Amino acid sequence: MRRKLVVGNWKMHGSRTQVRQLIEGVAAGSVDLKKVEIAVAPTLLHIALAAELCASEDAGHLKLAAQNLVAEPAGAFTGEVSAPMLAEYGVNYVIVGHCERRGIFAETDQVVAAKFKATQASGLIPILCIGESLAQREAGTSAEVVLEQLNAVTDAVGIESLQSAVLAYEPIWAIGTGKTASKEQAQEIHRVLREHIAKSNTAVAQSIRILYGGSVNAANATELFSQVDIDGGLVGGASLKVEEFVSICKSAD
Ligand code: PGA
């Protein structure tokens, strides 16, 4: 049985006050949830504060995720943060390959694979994001595109590396647009991904959690999370509102 996971990706939002309010609010609202695993991903600048807050007794059930890292452990990489640094702060998960990183910051599949590898090398769990554009969906190539993105990573690190990783299917056209993939559209891609992994390793295919991301909100979370191959969500905009995010977490519990 795969434990559902809901991750709040705060992107470049939040002040110290908001980080405190969000973590305290989400922690209080989710304290009685028994099954779902919950993680928050603040900006890198707020990781230290978030780590401190998540270490408190009241928020101890929340996990911490980083939104990005650089693949090298240390060196002359002005402006970057590495996996060992994140590990020192008690980070559990790192989002890699988010379409905003691929699109705005020109991260290639090779860069994503290197980040995935570096994350695991420090004992952290990568959340590998893959997803097609609207043009690719309209051309009927969604499955092909996500499998190519997945293969780029597994070719570099081996399919077994998915044993300690999370996948997130995030159709680009659904991110921040209010257009969610229907439960059928999402389930179909999740099924394709799991079946593809099963061809190489059935145990990994059964155990890997595949999250859906793209305009998840309190109104659509239940039907998305009830699909057999959807194991939770990567939530952007709706994770910045305590009540809504807690409600999404409840849908996964
Ligand atoms: P959204 O973002 O929920 O605001 O669409 C999801 C994501 O980018 O992970």
Folded structure, characterized:
The chain is of the alpha/beta class. The protein has a single domain (4-252), classed as Alpha-Beta Barrel (TIM Barrel), CATH 3.20.20. The chain has helices at residues 16-30, 47-54, 83-88, 99-104, 109-121, 134-138, 142-157, 183-200, 202-207, 221-225, 242-251; strands at 5-9, 37-41, 62-66, 93-96, 125-130, 166-169, 209-213, 232-235. The protein has an 8-stranded parallel barrel with strand order 1-2-3-4-5-6-7-8, surrounded by 5 helices. Strand 3, helix 3 and strand 4 form a beta-alpha-beta unit. Helix 1 (16-30) packs parallel to helix 2. It is globular. The two termini are 13 Å apart. It binds 2-phosphoglycolic acid. The site of 2-phosphoglycolic acid (PGA) has 13 residues, from strand 8.
Q: How much of the residues is beta strand, in percent?
A: 15-25%
Total domain count: 1
| Biggest sheet features | 8 strands, parallel, barrel
Bound molecules: 2-phosphoglycolic acid
Low-confidence regions: none
CATH top level class name: Alpha Beta
Count of separate DSSP helical elements: 11
Average residue pLDDT: 97
Judged by helices, strands and strand pairing, the structural class is alpha/beta
Overall 3D form: globular
Q: What is the strand tally?
A: 8
